[in-house]
Amino acid sequence: MTRLNYNIALYALATSSIILTSCSDNDIPDADPEITDPTIAEQYYSGGVLGTSFISSSKAYEQPTPAVNNSGMFQSFNRGEKMFEKPFTANNNGGEREGLGPLYIRTSCLHCHPGYGHGKSMPNGSFNTTEVGNGYLLVVASNDNYVTWLAGMPQTHAVAPFKDPIDESQIKIQWNEFKDEWNNTFADGETYSLRYPVVTMPREAVYVLRQGYHDPNGSDMNYTDADGNPFSIRLESTLGIYGTGLLDAISDEDIIAQYEKQHKDGKLPNGLNPAYFKDGEYIGWYKNSAQGDGTPYVRRLTYACSRGPVLDGAGANAIWNITNVTRSDRRYHYLDLNGKIYATYASKDPEVQAGFNEYISKLTNRIEHPEFFTDDMEANVYNYLTSKNLPTEMTDDDYVDLMVWHRGLAVPAARNIDNPTIQHGKKKFEEIGCDYCHRETWTTGSDEVHDPNLFTVADKSSNNFGKRLASLMPRYPNQKIWPYTDLIQHKLFMKNDLRTGWCRTTALWGRGMHQLCTGSQYADRLHDCRARTALEAIMWHGTNQGGTSDAYWCVKKFRELPKADRDAICAFVDAI
Amino acid sequence: MKKQKTLILTTAIIVVLAMIAATLIESVAGSDFVAQNIYHSWWFISLWALLAIAGFIYILRMKQWKSPATFLMHLAFIVILCGALITHIFGEQGSIMLMKGYPQNFFVLSDSRTATLPFQITLDDFDIMYYEGTMSPQDYCSHLSIKEGSVTTKGTASMNNIFTYAGYRFYQSGYDSDMQATHLSVSHDPYGIFVTYSGYLLLLLSMILYFFQPKSKYRRLLSSRAKALLLLLCLAPLAIHAEKNTPKVIPTELAEAFGNLHIYHNGRICPMQTFAHDFTVKLYGKADYRGRKCEEVLAGWLFFPNTWKPEPMIKVKGSEVKRLLGTEDTHVSLLQFANKYGEYKLEDAINEIQRGNDVAGKANIKAANEKISIINGVFTGSSIKIFPMRQKNGSIMWYSSIDELPEGIDMYHWTMIRKQLPLIAEAVTTRQYKEASKLIAQLADYQRKECGSALPSETEFKAEKLYNSISSSRMWAMLCTTIGILAFIYTIWLISKRRKASIIYSIGINAVIISSWAFLTACMALRTVISHHLPLSNGFETMQALAWSCLLIAFLLQRKSQFALPFGCLIGGMAMMVAMMGESNPTVTNLMPVLQSPLLSIHVMVIMIAYAFLAFMMLNSIAALVLMRKGTEMQTELRELKRLSLLMLFPAVFLLTTGIFIGAVWANISWGRYWGWDPKEVWALITMLIYSLPLHSSAQWLQRDKAYHIYIILAFLAVLMTYFGVNFFLPGLHSYA
User: Fold this and answer.
1) Is B402 close to A64, i.e. CB distance below 8 A?
2) Residues 6+ away with beta carbon under 8 Å from B325
3) Which residues of chain B have a CB within 8 Å of the CB of A57?
4) Which is more confidently placed, B667 or B660?
């Protein structure tokens, strides 16, 4: 070959090689064949066949269950959805969805449940409850008891002339770094960071304290610092709403059986909460004698495990107490725990007295409520605030719709659960014992919907006239569901732990979609959103501040796993 | 005479060096600094003046008027420079803010002095026109009235329309969010623009004339076998990374059925496949990904998002974007856009941009952000508008499954819109494919029933699908370009050996040309069927048309020149590649008003063709240098190659010049100034000046072959700097391309 030929050949080779390189693909394999392993197929149905929605979009928490559809309740569901999403307006404004106030916590449900999920964490700074997505509630307690001079869920807003029970602009949230006993480092060198919130609130922020109230037990006196005893302030974030109907469908007997099993095992250092289970017997019955007949039900909802059936659960309560919108069975206001302290100081407040006549005249008249229109203004204000027969602000129909929607929200299907890594994570999750408390599956009972309120729809304009609320609900009988909770409280002993330290095991279903559905910056796991990732949440289980965590043994095993296994567990937790 | 020539050359070199220096200084010291100290300085203006005057005297002394085209061409440059001077001295540029109903008679100059208007101007009203049925603005319109004495004149300034009154031109530049005030740029430069535009016109005429001038150097060159030809060069092979991640797909037949659904996309009803095509091309730059067709890719993202998030299929450009993402890769995964807490890595930069601040790599950051928005549209389902519903007034609205539905919607529609997609997802996730296929068929039925004849006809639908499936011109572009280059080399070799082309070569290259041409014909025909108009409405379509004509001409001219086929292949391939560059940014979102002007695509196109010539000349010169090493026996062939090179040099420089001036006209229409000393403009000018040197036969030292070829190769560095370097190293208006 001549030199020229050689050069040309080289030139040609170089050119064609550039072009050829672009043809080397690595192809994506074909779709998986029709499913063969039924045990994996069922893991997709987190909420069972009747309670799962397969949409992996940012609206995943907002879907109706197939049960809603099957029973033709979609109109009711849609109306309930609006009730949940739209803000309420002040109770003397003459607008839509009236009834806000006189004192309130948020103006709409969506404020605390962004995308229907768990609340979002807030950055360092003020406690701004007008921000949509801030799902934090304050918990102000003294020796583990709520202080009596505020509401259990303290209100920070009021409709004029009433004064905000707490001036929230004076509340500060600060995130502190935390080092665990392993200096936030795994044996292989991987590190993580942990943070926890510290909330401060000066005395002056509280209206009744400003007005001169002193607790005879001194709960208001000694408060100075963040760790302060006896008066502590903690944050509790809202929980997601989806899937509560399915938890409701689990039978009481099955939950009691779970208590009995754990009691028999005696495996966990802190045992069972003696308030709920004592001497081998379940004693934590939820009874409503105010509206209902006191029938006992097993408690299963909220961190404090304070609520039983959904129809008298956190949501049924919140639509009344967050907004202070009265309904036919609750014609009174949510005030401080004592019930009289705020009313007393507000009624003596000359500014409140000055504006009260104008306020009350828009609400009612002296024929229906002469007790609000006497010559004694102090008595008028006091009578109004403590009244038990206020005008109803929410119709029964609206309430029914809201409950249909509440009980009708589907759980998002698990994502990519048949992926080998995720299945490996599941195996490890089980091997190290996470599933002891995060119990993987339950099978619901016959789901005879319970309503401790015994609410009867009394709106004459309604087709449902005279029907029991419970009979109008979507139902989920005999569903195999995957909530990953034992519905029992345990103690983790975290820094700045929640009140009493007892916390119901959180349902993990759907939580991996939190950021997608709420637009939050972080995964916001744990009761005050302190964990920014699944890994941080796991590591908080083993921090042992002032006691031995019920999950310490499990976290130690987690630490011994190689990184690939740890990552697989986190991936699994995010996938379910 | 000799002295004067040296003076002109030296001045030109100093001007070029000064401009190079200015662009470099600008990147450090900022635009204002160089504008003040270089571009608008007395010495820089004097240099240009010196160049113009000396040049003018020189061409007079050379009696250049004897070849009128050449003379006019040079005269045109002098006129353009005069125009620039007039603008510099007499032109006024500034801005004016008008509040609705408040007359005003002054505006603020760019140096913040104020200038008086000889009339009163009032904003009567301001409105935004939107693309039908969307919230994306189509145009911003300020309705103005002008009062001079007792006469009132009304008019409108919008992004696509300059309002001119008494030599003052008003350009829409901004508005207050309450729509109570508008911001207009004001330009008053009646003589400068007139003179400059006359210069452009003169230049254009003289260049056309030049090709007809009997004694022109070009005609002499043309007398040889070779004819005038064009081409482009752009080789950007995509390195594809081997990754462990296995994204999930649905079975091919199911994906096909899915792609056969209708969707409301880009303001029209089209096959889901078109949406999938745009989605994949927008993200990845190609209509398929790792051997999967676009509808499989889209279905994957929709139904198995978690398996696609780690997939490095999002193509990003620009070092700044890569720095923010913390990667060197061109293809990144969605996960790489978030840190370990899930925080969006481009968030801060995007916020800055939205606040109107300048950010390094702005255009690339916006482009990357847009890709994420497109994925979000699929994640939230908001862009999957596949549920038509007839409204009470008979019109059809298309909903996504998350759209707010009308009050009182009936169960049938509600169930379909809210539940059908989750049901399909359920069947697909749990791998009950028969069920999924039934559900998709149900949805297709629903679409047909609800829309009736409002859906595209079967023929249009099939045409569009066929078009989507064949429209990827990548393979054809690559094929033509590669064959073109190889054929070129082969032809040189043939010449050097004084041999005839083999029959296999002839058949092969003809096959390539004919099949590529058939492909383009089919594409254009299908586009005509789908869009109901001839496919010549945008840059992509014109580029394809260019390729189409090139291939045809090459085929017809093959008996006239040995180089016809190689060049035809090359130019055709290059034109298709340029078209693809446009296509990889399909208008998923509507164009911003200022970019709508056809001048922009012509400007880009003309310059791209010029670059193509220059690139080819560079290759040609390399070939010549290689042949030279063979010794003296190649004289004839070398002469041929040089002639070929010069043959291309003329149109290249002319096109470059035209391109620059079309850009100037476009800038004048859009922004009110035709020349802004933007680094890309400056470098284009530098390139033009550098390449115009060898056009001048009086540059003796360049007559020598070796010097000429080396010069041409080195000159290409200026093209590279203009095309790539400016975007990487220097700031400016052109950072989008």
Assistant:
1) no
2) B316, B332, B336, B337, B345, B346, B368
3) 379-381, 402
4) B660
